[in-house]
Amino acid sequence: MRAACINAYTLTCAAGVGMPAVNRSLKEARTGLSETPWPGCGVATWLGRVAALDDDERHVDERWGCRNNRLAQLGLEQDGFATRVREAVAHYGAGRCAVILGTSTSSIGRTEQAYSELQPDQRFSPEFRQPEVHNPHSVSGYVAEYLGITGPAMTLSTACSSSAKVFASAARWLACNVADAIVVGGVDSLCLSVIYGFHSLQLVSPNPCRPFDRDREGISLGEAAGFALVSRDPFGANSLALLGYGESTDAYHMSSAHPEGLGAQLAMQAAIKRSGLSFEGIDYLNLHGTGTRSNDGIEGRLCASLFPESTLLSATKGWTGHTLGAAGITEAVLSINALATGFVPGTLNTRSPDPACEAPILLDGVEAPIDTAMSNSFGFGGNNCSLIFGRA
Prior knowledge:
alpha/beta
């Protein structure tokens, strides 16, 4: 495939609001996870909450008002990202710019609140009558309007791979001349449905998640807003790009990965083939690494069989938590950022790697100038996506 240029990127998550804060957390090995309980929730766990959002007083038009869209706006305003997008809109035209975002729960937290405060006649109270909010496309519609983009806007919801697959869709849109510049990303915020849902699956850890650790207990849930601006040609001086992508759907089970990782393997192999590289040509791999007993074992053994020992492997959910529909963009941005900064993050909270996982996990961050990076995202239902980034 022809490389899709990455012209700007940003991430807001529990580890920090914007890239400078995130980078400080990565280098200081300081987690964003906290055991502060979620309001109204009795599950004892650590969460990757964007605490700054609780005190943020920025205004979101009442048509779009919800935590998820406030998180989206907070994220858009970091690292000069919104300004960069508006420059692209002025350059290409609003109709030639597009939005593709991934989310899992979107603004369902607002819907939970609406149902908990029903009027005596069982109708939503007036402040909750927001048709633009109570649907999965809410965040994409809001972001497009906020940025002044009038081209196509699309929402992907394939569980944990949602905001990784946005890059694949954007590459296809660019190749088909649907748009000249595309805002890709993902936004997902914490809510009761998420916490209780994963708790009911017995996947939530009572302690900070420890990916690939011998004593891992499960996931730590989180929230995040991440974005990248991609185009067919460089818009400015940035030289980073999406080199390849691979997607698969193995449909082995609603919530469990294929025991041999067949879908994950297909996604990685497709990304390698499309990029024209080899597994030996990948300098860094950001693993999906949820911290669950099953998934880490499957991914670790698969990657150990595909990659040489020289490839740096790490999982970064110890900083951010599992940000669900925003996990793909969270880890894609961290991979892009490793290319840009030359700092490869380690695997936070993990100190006794499980030999059954087989893969040689990088525990501590290292200064290591790299030229290529892969990011893995494997979702429920076997929705898998692997991305490869490098120099344009």
